[in-house]
Design brief:
The protein is α/β, with parallel strands linked by helices and 287 residues long. The chain has 11 helices and 9 strands. Strand 8, helix 9 and strand 9 form a beta-alpha-beta unit. The longest helix has 13 residues.
Length: 287
Amino acid sequence: MLFASMLFTAKTFLGLATFAGAPGAGVAGVPGAGIAGTPGAGGENAAPRTYVLVHGAWTSSAGWEPVKELLEKAGQKVILVSLPGHGDDQTPPGTLTMDVYRDKTIEAINAIQGKVILVGHSMAGMVISAVAEKIPNRIDKLVYLAAYLPANGQSLLDLATTDKDSYLGNALMPSEDHTTIGIKKDVIVPAFCQDAPDGVKSAVVSTFRAEPAIPFTNKVTLTAANFGHVPKYYIHTLQDHTVSSALQKRMVAAAPKVVKEYSLDSSHTPFLSMPGQLVDLLLEIVK
C-alpha cells in the first residue's frame, strides 16, 4: 500500500485552477479554500523565512506552485525541490534510491544560506527525515504534510503495508521489471484528490506517470542526536484516502519531538483543494 499525489505541469495546473482575486487568494469555487496571510506574516517587520518544499510520489514540484505563490505573496522565500525521475526528468528509475532523493534535497538547501523550514508531502516525509539526519543544523523545523514519518530502520513500504484503510491496497500496478509502480486509473482521483476542482482532477489523471519503485523499499537510518533533535510539525489530512488518518496518528505518536499538530479537512492533496488554508498553517508554524 503505497501512496501518492499527482503529476502535471505548473502551466496545466494554473490554467485549470484559477485564483480568485489577487495573488494570495484561495482557489476559486473551492469551499473553504481560505486566504493566505498578508505580506510580513508573523510580524510586521519579521524577516522572511525560507521554505523548502519537497513533493511526494507520483507527482512533481509543479504541485507546489499554488503554495509557492501564496507564500511569496506573504513575504516568504520558497525553494521547490524537483526529485529525479519526476516531472520532465528522465533519469532511469532503476538508478533511483531514497539516498538520491535525500542528496538532491540537501543540494538545494546547500545552495542557500541560513536555516530552512523543510516541508515534505507524502513520500517526501521519508526524504526530509533522511535529510534531517544528515544536516540537522541547517533545518529550523521539519513539517510533515500527510506524510510518512518513519522511525529508525523503517522504509515507506514498512509503514504503508500497515495502512488497511488506504485505497491503494489492490490498486498498485508494478512494471514487468519492477522498477516502477503505477496505479489503476479509476483509483487515482478518489485516492488522491477527491475534493479538488474537476479540471484539476482531469489533469491529474491525464498526466499521471508511474513512480520509481526502489525508494519505497529503502530503509532510513535515523538517530536521536540528529533527526531526533529537529523540531517536527505534522499537518493531518482528515479526508485522506492514501495515507489514512489512523496511520498518520500512529506515526506521530511514535515520533520524537513533534512540537505541534494541525489538521485540514482535506484529501491527500490540500495544495490542490485548499492552498490558502494550507499556507495559513505553514505561516502559523513559523510564528
